[in-house]
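Contributing new records

If you add data, match the layout below exactly. Sequence lines come first and carry their own label; structure lines follow with theirs. Keep one chain per record. Anything else will be rejected by the validation script.
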Amino acid sequence: MPVRFGDFLLDRDRRLLSRGGERVPLARKAFDFLDVLVSERPRALSKEQVRDRVWPKTVVSESTVNGLLGELRAALGDDAREPRYIRTVHGFGYAFVAEASEPPADAPLPASSAATTPALLTARLLWEDRLIPLSPGENILGRDEDVNVRIDAPSVSRRHALITIAVGEPASIEDLGSKNGTWVAGQRLEGGPTTLTDGDPVRLGKIELLFLDSKEKGSTQTVGE
């Protein structure tokens, strides 16, 4: 049975998350993570329960769970500090906090969905083999558990850099006073925001990322599971 929350529709049978009729790219484990939280709403699940459900019979680190949570929040446009969908229960685990319902499969989508979808789907960061969606607005990158994009690496500061995505404007990045610096195309950032364009290499300390923005190409990229 599909579940609707906010502008989103979670279709378990087709393993599809959509917004305004458009697919929201999610890795397989990110979909499983969301499905578990939505299914158990409003009950909070411990980190151990999440690991047992999403990675059965597999040992994974807490940083793996937190990294996947960051990807999921970015896909939903959620903010860890003021969550609309997923709340971190500090010292315990996570809970799905949005109002959700199970409407008929042919029920119309909210009228506001289509207008916001393009901004949600265009900008991403590629980190090794992970494709991380960036939300419209501010995306803080760092090691802190509550940042938008969590990168758990020793050379990355807790709140390392800020990427801003605005409709109709170029994306920008700025360093947040990190210890090891933020670099774009081989140049260390100094002062205020610097414009990002599709294909720009970004480095946080020793961590190499690639900024991708499909709106500059005039099409939406397809993300595999």
